[in-house]
Design the sequence.
């Protein structure tokens, strides 16, 4: 086979191979979600003998019984309140810090940025005991803030790095023009940087929201009242000492991950633009 034919075959097979890989990755993500949603439509007996197949008789009562309980909506409200507070505080703090690292030159800036990057290698579970002691001393146990503030602290490192890389790509000519017109750093940050940075802001917001929405360990340690539990702790209501209502667990999980999925789909355009903003130099 000649080199030209080999090249034509490679060009022809490249899209096929690409779509095959994407199809496999999509299957790994969608199949568990579909199995969870279908599992919530089965009885406990059918779920044990047919965990992955299509339900023989659809049991809408599993979803109906969960939606009719006020406890489910209370759990959803707690998760939403904690997640929204975490997103707002993380974006405010990380955006201002990232702007300083990107456009303000001062002594020790590189050292501080490197020191902040160390936080990416520090797991939150390793600090759970001293974190609990500090939250207790501050009187934040059994409060939203006892969960929100540590989540913001542990999410700052990644958020600052993502935002800083995007802010650094904003042309310096805009900053020079703004300063000539009498606009300082604060005005440039507010009127120029933030409007141009909506893709990366949406990206960081979605990442922080999903992380907070699925956080289990920190609320388990900090919260003791059932009225403050987020949805990951609400699953325990369907787990008994000797048995578990798995059909209700799967229905509950399906209903509670829907907000995160909807938010991810709604912000998908900004996510792609934000994550690929630093992939090409130009």
Sequence:
């Amino acid at each position: 086979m000649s080199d030209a034919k080999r090249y034509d075959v490679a060009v022809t097979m490249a899209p096929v191979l690409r779509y095959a890989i994407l199809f496999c990755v999509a299957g790994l993500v969608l199949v568990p979600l579909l199995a969870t949603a279908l599992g919530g439509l089965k009885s406990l007996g059918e779920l044990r003998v047919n965990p992955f197949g299509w339900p023989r008789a659809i049991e809408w009562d599993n979803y109906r019984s969960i939606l009719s309980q006020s406890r489910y909506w209370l759990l959803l409200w707690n998760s939403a309140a904690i997640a929204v507070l975490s997103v707002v505080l993380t974006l405010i703090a990380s955006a201002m810090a990232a702007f300083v690292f990107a456009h303000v030159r001062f002594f020790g800036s590189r050292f501080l940025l490197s020191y902040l990057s160390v936080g990416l290698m520090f797991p939150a579970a390793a600090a759970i005991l001293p974190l609990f002691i500090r939250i207790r001393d501050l009187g934040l146990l059994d409060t939203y803030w006892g969960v929100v503030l540590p989540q913001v602290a542990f999410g700052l490192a990644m958020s600052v790095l993502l935002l800083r890389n995007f802010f650094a790509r904003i042309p310096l000519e805009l900053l020079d023009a703004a300063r000539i017109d009498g606009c300082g750093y604060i005005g440039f940050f507010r009127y120029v940087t933030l409007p141009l940075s909506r893709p990366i802001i949406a990206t960081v917001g979605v990442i922080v929201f999903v992380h907070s929405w699925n956080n289990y360990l920190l609320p388990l340690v900090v919260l003791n009242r059932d009225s403050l539990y987020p949805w990951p702790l609400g699953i325990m209501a369907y787990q008994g000492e000797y048995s578990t209502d798995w059909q209700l667990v799967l229905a509950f999980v399906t209903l509670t991950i829907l907000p995160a999925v909807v938010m991810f789909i709604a912000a998908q355009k900004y996510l792609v633009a934000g994550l690929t903003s630093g992939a090409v130099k130009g």
User: Anything to note?
Assistant: Residues 278-282 have pLDDT under 50 and may be disordered.
